[in-house]
Design brief:
Layout: E1 7-12, H1 20-34, E2 38-42, H2 46-50, E3 56-59, H3 61-64, E4 86-87, E5 93-94, H4 97-106, E6 111-116, H5 118-131, E7 135-139, H6 155-176, E8 178-184, H7 191-199, E9 204-206, H8 214-226, E10 232-237, E11 249-251, E12 257-259, H9 262-274, E13 277-281, H10 294-312, E14 318-323, E15 326-331, H11 332-337, H12 347-354
Parallel strand pairs: 1-2, 1-6, 6-7, 7-14, 8-10, 8-13, 9-10
Antiparallel strand pairs: 2-3, 4-5, 11-12, 14-15
Helix pairs in contact: 1-10, 4-5, 6-7, 7-12, 8-9
The structure holds 6-O-phosphono-beta-D-fructofuranose.
Length: 380
């Protein structure tokens, strides 16, 4: 027997990515077609709940049927700040958590499905505990760093786009005898760089989990030059660190630190040490936008259905997860605590090394290359 009439809410939180709309569609289909429930789409993540009156709109099979392949999120999202220390337009800091909780109750929701990355899920969970509301999580992030799930919505599309960039750059790099550096997003996890680097046939792949040495990278390029290969492809994750654990960050004029710039940083040093002409390509938010890959649409659809089923079973504080070729569910708390980075001893790293891809680190074969390598002293 279908559970009694309910009204559930859905919101998307954190950076957008491809596949969010496919998840929203699946939630609405399952909630209405299987259970006969009402679904409210909360606008702009928790901001929609904090507004007075709350900003939400009814979602029906009729108005979501054609969003399966649309990029972005029809609900809007936000990835700035925390509601526990919200900075308003005048610059003052305020805790708006109670406004969000009041919004949930004012809308008469019996549960909220939050689609977000680890940061968003942590915030939503804290709000749910404080406000006594029912939460189910769906993992999304191009970074694929949410714990206990092999897939997060958005990762597949991001890898496709980054791989296509590498594919397209091989021929132009070869035509000009250049070193091309593709700087990709991913924050502290190098999954996009590792996957796109292997899939795109890069010569060097740098990820935050493996500290890099300019000397090792330069020597790889010099050895390729010596073999008559005057072009090279490097894929670098934005948050890579050198042996002193320093990353390249940009400081904005308002004093905020943002990742980005490692491509240019490497390019100058590679040019200085190898003489190779270098160019930098930063796909940036292209990795998040546009049509979701079939894989992301499938993942999002499966997650959406399973999340509604968790609500039907009244199993809250759970996150749907992809494990062992199927959708399972895990405690949100455990997923957040098991932040998933690239395993330096894992299959993809072994694959990359097996293919002869330089990972920028000091291996038994390359340690002597470090001798005489320029030391990185300043990172801005
Ligand atoms: O977490 C997703 C992500 O795309 C990261 O890979 C990236 O560092 C960050 O968001 C960029 O955020 P913003 O959209 O604020 O520039």
């Amino acid at each position: 027997m279908a559970p009694a009439q309910r009204r559930i809410g859905v919101l998307t939180s954190g950076g957008d990515c491809a596949g969010l709309n496919a998840a929203i569609r699946a939630i609405v289909y399952r909630a209405q077609k299987t259970y006969g429930w009402e679904v409210l789409g909360i606008e702009q993540s928790t901001h929609g709940l904090a507004a007075s009156p709350p900003r939400a709109r009814p979602l029906t099979v009729h108005n979501v049927h054609d969003i399966l392949n649309q990029g972005g999120t029809i609900l809007g999202s936000t990835n700035s700040g925390s509601p526990f220390a919200h900075v308003d337009s005048s610059g003052s800091v305020k805790d708006i958590s109670q406004d969000i909780i009041d919004g949930y109750h004012e809308l008469g929701l019996s549960a909220l499905i939050g689609i977000g990355g680890d940061g968003s899920l942590a915030i939503l969970r804290k709000l749910a505990i404080q406000g006594g509301f029912n939460l189910v999580g769906i993992p999304k992030t191009i970074d694929n760093d949410v714990g206990l799930t092999e897939r997060a919505i958005g990762f597949s599309t991001a890898v496709n786009i980054a791989t296509e960039a590498v594919d397209r750059l091989h021929c132009t790099a070869a035509s000009h005898n250049r070193v091309m550096i593709v700087e990709v997003m991913g924050r502290d996890a190098g999954h996009i760089a590792m996957s796109a680097g292997i899939a795109g046939g890069a010569n060097v792949v740098l990820v935050p989990e493996i500290p890099y040495s300019i000397g090792v990278i330069a020597e790889t390029i010099r050895q390729r030059q010596a073999r008559g290969k005057h072009h090279s492809l490097i894929v670098v994750a934005e948050a890579v660190k050198n042996a002193d654990r320093e990353a390249v960050v940009n400081t904005t004029c308002t004093g905020q630190n943002r990742l980005g710039g490692i491509g240019n940083y490497l390019a100058e040093r590679i040019h200085a040490t190898t003489g190779a002409e270098t160019r930098v390509i930063v796909p940036g938010h292209l990795l998040r936008g546009g049509t979701p890959s079939p894989f992301d649409r499938l993942t999002a659809s499966a997650f959406g259905i399973a999340a509604v089923d968790l609500v039907a079973q009244e199993r809250y504080d759970r996150m749907v997860a992809w494990q062992d070729r199927q959708v399972k569910d895990v405690a949100i708390e455990d997923a957040i605590n098991e932040y998933a980075t690239v395993d330096p001893d894992g299959t993809l790293v072994k694959t990359a090394r097996g293919l002869g891809i330089c990972l920028g680190d000091c291996t038994p074969d390359s340690c002597d290359l470090m001798v005489g390598a320029p030391k990185v002293t300043a990172i801005v």
